[in-house]
Amino acid sequence: MTITTSSTPQLNLPTTTKRHKLHHDHHDHHHQQPLIPGLPDHIAQLCLSQINPSCLFSISSSWRRFIYSPSFPPFFSLYAILSPSSSPHTFQTSSSTTTTTTLSSSNSIHFYNFDPISTTWRILPPPPLYPPLLLRHPSFLSRNLSIQSISVSGNLVLLAATTLNLYPALSRPLIFNPLSQAWTFGPTLATPRRWCALGASCSAVYVASGIGSHYSNDVAKSLEKWDLNKKTGEWESKKGLKDGRFSREAIDAVGWRGKLCMVNVKGDAAKEGVIYDVEEDLWKEMPEGMLGGWRGPVAAMAEDVMYVVDEVKGCLKKYVAEEDYWEEVMVCESLKGAEQIAAEGGRVCVVSGGKISVVDVVAAQPRLTVVDLPQGFQAVAVHILPRMPVTDFSI
Questions:
Q1: Inside any domain, residue 259
Q2: pTM above 0.90, yes or no
Q3: What residue spans carry the Basic residues bias annotation (predicted)?
Q4: Which of 74, 129, 218, 280 would bridge 386 by S-S if both were Cys, CB 3.0 to 4.6 A apart?
Q5: Distances in whole angstroms, Cα of residue 3 to Cα of each of 21, 80, 347, 363, 383
């Protein structure tokens, strides 16, 4: 896809390799010029679908409509959870000894999509009603509370968050499908939770450990699986962890080569690491080299190549499984303080300091681009998913 910033030229990112059946839009056929004069539209679609959409966007309105239609293989774009960047809290004190705290609108979150071809941000349709998802709390001024989301099978899945009374906010996942541009609910969790380990492998979502309304050792050791492709669509209990040490923070269970890799503490602190084999339903110890280099957020591209950003040094590294070590890709000041990353289509997207940086990791010389966010917002999380169709070209 293409990322554009105020200080860097366009950066073309690879489109998805998945091919979609080409359709003929009869409505457009009668109201627009042929896509390629002299060729039937279904042949023209075959030809144009082989070209990078960034090259087609500015040529003609008919080509612009085509790349956003169901007929064109959907290219990747960014889906971000954003929050207002204003002061996080407003405190109101009455004349009596009672003090009340009012959370400002900056505590809210918003879901946005960044289209890399038109270089525009679009707000997503509002999700179904749910309790407010708390990003900050007056009792924890120094840190944000976790809002845990993941991308799986081309969907954005929101699974865990916290309410004002510090209870789990979601009893079942919220799912956004970019192609239908609609939110739906997933199956109800046996125990809604927060501060859990969240990951995906193939078409399945896994949630492990965490706490519910109150701490429970059974919940802290549990593992549940939900396969989006199964018709039953229910959560299945899987083999649990040996202890509850992974309920301390909201962490990623990184899907990698048929396994889920996770550590129990974020950042540069000493930590424990485990690996869950999704086929064997077994937990194993994490290799020493993998654990030693896990010094920040981690993501796997196509569940095959794993990347980490050292949040202290701002160093992006790639895991070399055969030698059990992390190979340096690049070091950049913009990557320091990394909080979350996503990897897809040859790009690693990093959230740090409320900004989103995109690293082209397949280029001969890795390049970093900072994405301009909507004014007044900062990034909480980012995901890479297929673009949304567009029908209104008036903007």
A1: yes
A2: no
A3: 17-32
A4: 74
A5: 27, 14, 11, 15, 14
How far is residue 247's CA from residue 58's CA, in Å, rounded to a whole number?
50
Candidates 358, 306, 354; CA nearest to 332 is 358
C-alpha 391/C-alpha 395 separation (Å) is: 11
The answer to whether the CB of 258 falls within 8 A of the CB of 302 is no
Answer whether 209's CB lies under 8 Å from 196's CB: yes
Domain assignment present for 132? yes
In a domain, residue 49? The reply is no
Token digits of residue 40? 């039937």
Q: What are 44-89's pLDDT values in tens digits?
A: 777 777 777 777 777 777 777 777 777 777 889 999 999 998 644 4
> First-to-last CA distance in the chain?
20
Q: Where are the alpha helices (DSSP H) in 184-311?
A: 217-220, 288-292
Distance between CA atoms of residues 291 and 170, nearest Å = 31
Q: Which amino acid is at 366?
A: P
Query: What CATH number should be reported for the domain holding residue 178?
Result: 2.120.10.80
How many whole angstroms separate alpha carbon 5 and alpha carbon 373? 9
The Cα–Cα gap between 220 and 209 comes to 4
Residue 266 belongs to domain spanning? 75-90+97-386
